Amino acid sequence: MRAFRYARASDPADAATLVAGEPDAVYLGGGTNLVDLMKLGVLRPGLVVDVSRLPYDRIEHLPDGGVLIGGAARGGRVGRDDVLRRRYPALIRALLSGASAQIRGQATLAGNLLQRTRCPYFQNTTVPCNKRDPGSGCSAIPGAHRDLGVIGTSDHCVATHPSDLAVALAAYDAVVEVRRRDGTEVLVPIGDLYRLPGDTPWIETVLEPGDLITGVQLPPPPDGAVATYRKVRDRWSFAFATVSVAAVLTADEVRLALGGVAPKPWRLTATERLLAGTDPTDDEVRAATRAAFADARPLPDNAFKIELAVDLVAAVFRDLRPVGAGR
Amino acid sequence: MSAGSGLPRLEGRDKVTGAARYAYEYPIEDCLYVWPVGATVASGTVTEVDATAALADPEVVAVVDHTNAPRLRPAVTADELVLQSPTVAYRGQVVAAVVATTLEAAREGAEQLLVRYVEHPHKAVLDPDDPDLEQPETTNAGFPGTSVKGDVDAALAAADVAVDHIYTTPPEHNNPMETVAIIARWDGERLLVHDSNQGPWAAATGYGMLWGIPADQVDVVTEHVGGGFGSKVWPTAGAVVATVAARVTGRPCKLMLTRQQMYTMAPARTATRSRIRLGARRDGTLTAIDHDALQYSSVIHEFVEQTGSATRTMYASDNLRIRHRLARLNLPTPRVMRAPGKTPGMFALESAMDELAYALGMDPLALRLRNEPPTEPATGLPFGGRHLVDCLRAGADKFGWASRDPTPAVRRRGRWLFGTGLASAVYPVYQQGGTATARASPDGTFDVSVAAVDIGTGARTALWQAVADALGVPPSRVSVHIGRSAFGQSSLAGGSAGTASWGGAVRKACFELGRRLAEHGGAVPVDGLEVTADTAADQLPPDHARHSYGAHFCAVRVDADTGQVRVDRLLGVFAHGHALNARTTHSQLLGGMVMGLSIALCEQTIVDPRLGLFVNHDLAQYHIATNADIRGLEAHSLEHTDDDVTLVGGKGIGELGIVGSAAAVANAVFHATGVRVRDLPITVERVRAR
């Protein structure tokens, strides 16, 4: 691996100063993804700025019923927060379904949002990958793409975003707090944080160099909401989602986000509109979910994900709606 | 306390506290780090290794490639003949090595190396219509490539009921916790290695052959090993690189393969494709068994997985045909992984038996009982103990099989579909000759040395008990020394034969020592008394078919929403004769069952045929069953004695537990869902493909 410089930011302004003028600087949170990628030669930063000790590790319960989770908060602690467990069950289920207890204990919230795809070709420097090596070509499309995306992808990249937590955050309409290099703060709805690959798959978010995710605002969950997260994976622990769904339902609102299918947490906005305020049958849920995949670009070995997502959304509706509530 | 009791492992505390020293951890002065570099083309010729940038780092001491590596001689497979030619037979084959004073510099040097190639066409797909398939004379372990009894085609045509299906298993990789590791030093023409292997003597022999020196000029130290499963049976390409680097630099060199490097620089299991045809009379009597097995080897070495070998011995049939065909692919030479041949072959055969039971409308247990052979079907040899029926019956009792409704896909509670399945297990009895030395000291203590290795099986503890038992003294007065090739020719930990072979040698040495002590009136001379025994002449005659047996019973639940499979219960009953240590035996059986469950549900190495690439070469992507995948797990050992077995009175148990367990899972999935998955692993999309 490339020799690199390490610096620990003493305060947020210091972090911004350290990375200024350093085009190959990266921020270090828990390191559970970054350090792996550095060892593999996928990322070769010249400067690693440790921001894990900046004062962004709080979990703050706000008077309006919302919650602010700091960007440096470790997953293990977030998962143990009683209020979050009670009020945001889909978030906690998603969090606890990811990685292992050891990794969650180390990984930070901001790092979770910015972790890189687990596409095997991205992680292997001996093969072409447009995300890692722009213009070299996508090995996954003609290759092993079973675990990769079916929607929001492009001819240049079919990578998925691997986070479970981000899928639940999307369903809770979370807003990401970003500190710019000049010290100003901007708020980015999580749905706007990620960019689709198009013909620039190496650009993954709207963040600018030096931007630092300082926290995530969770609005209060809708009144009377029921919520859950279900994940299909190849084993019962320690595997990324084949397909997952986060659902937040009320009598007149439906929020659904999928993991494992797209380059970002994928809100099913069309489905939500079709189902909101209705008391849908199983078939109506399926039809509405299928409608969200009208623009899907499935590949031979991952086309199964669409019907799996349909079945999963239908199952979650059954799970969340009390018996007898449906028609 | 004697043999058979469940003494805890001698080294257990050292291992959990970190005190146990593994090969890579020996503090050797002035040691260099070696980073092997794998080919990035699937087939071709290296035209240039440009080391300019790598050597610009003062920490990089040397770059070795085929132009400057010393010559090696053929040993076990061509994969270990590293850096001998510019020809690339598969992606990941070692084409260079960077040697540096730090690990990081070696790794970065490898990144900086520019290796240029001329690429050649390659082939990496196991294809039954491949025009270049070979029909090998023999398979691994010396079975005939083709064996025929009776007229299978006529019997199939005349059968009342027949099944004909194809079962596939993917390549699977050995993933020991400790990857291949070595520290190599040369002292003149002597090679000294701290090495992670499955047999110090086999390692010494292998390194000796490669370097053209006698095995006794290679000193191998292997005190602790973090698993092997078959990946460390012979010196691996990765480990040999360190001996080359040490030769080139004249300094000690250490190397530990990354998990990713293990996928091409250490052996794996081939993919297999078994077409099984079974013919039967209405009463379930088998009239034909046909097993047509396809597997692959590399283009540089012929290794033929013995995929059909279990079919030779399982069920009676007047008409029996077993054929092996071999594709030659641009992939690393596959070699052994726990229960080679038996694991994929018995998935196929035991799945087919379940399908035949359904075709007959017969209980799968009854079908197996109906076809119990009087002698071994392929060879006609009498059995040296046959306990399959005992295992099946005992397992059925413990599991509650009798109340089973065979109808598939009818047991649903909430989102879960429930089902049960069974499968048989078999593993041959192997034993190898070897030497051991026993020494009595005047203070009443005994020291026994044998070039054994404990790869995590509990062998050290079992041998300790065997020695105490043979000498008739308390274990506290006995020290067992293993893990050094200097202790003499000996078996490796393979073929489930390690402990039986080493145990036979140490027992013989102890008995001989006892006789010599008796000659001295029981008194130990002041200089002590030492005896070396050799069991080369004490081996099992080839007059019987000797196997251990087992039966797996599995209960699964399948998520009707998604197709996810969860194994609620896996129960195995095994007949392996005398256990040297009940605790570690139980642990080995459980470990085999877990590994079988793991290959049933999640293990697979994905090949990208376009790139000739093992795609998912790490433990995040190559899924092995986790704790969460294991619920009820039971292994029971049947009490029985077979006198005609190994010198220690028992049969091997290292591999028995994995054989057949994947079929038990697949059969239970069918019972739960009505979906027959004939291709491992049983992923959601396969369960959902109704």
From TrEMBL, chain A:
Residues 1-223 form the FAD-binding PCMH-type domain. GO terms for molecular function: FAD binding; oxidoreductase activity. Transmembrane segments: none annotated. InterPro entries: CO_DH_flav_C, CO_DH_flav_C_dom_sf, Diverse_Substr_Oxidored, FAD-bd_PCMH, FAD-bd_PCMH-like_sf, FAD-bd_PCMH_sub1, FAD-bd_PCMH_sub2, Mopterin_DH_FAD-bd. Pfam families: CO_deh_flav_C, FAD_binding_5. SMART domains: CO_deh_flav_C. The keyword Lipoprotein does not apply. The keyword Calcium does not apply. SUPFAM superfamilies: CO dehydrogenase flavoprotein C-terminal domain-like, FAD-binding/transporter-associated domain-like. Keywords: Oxidoreductase. PANTHER family: OXIDOREDUCTASE (PTHR42659:SF1), XANTHINE DEHYDROGENASE SUBUNIT C-RELATED (PTHR42659). This is Xanthine dehydrogenase YagS FAD-binding subunit. It comes from Asanoa hainanensis.
TrEMBL record, chain B:
SUPFAM superfamilies: CO dehydrogenase molybdoprotein N-domain-like, Molybdenum cofactor-binding domain. Residues 125-147 are annotated as: Disordered. Gene3D superfamilies: Aldehyde oxidase/xanthine dehydrogenase, a/b hammerhead, Aldehyde oxidase/xanthine dehydrogenase, molybdopterin binding domain. Residues 17-121 form the Aldehyde oxidase/xanthine dehydrogenase a/b hammerhead domain. Keywords: Molybdenum, Oxidoreductase. Signal peptide: none annotated. One of its GO terms (molecular function) is oxidoreductase activity. This is Xanthine dehydrogenase YagR molybdenum-binding subunit. It comes from Asanoa hainanensis.
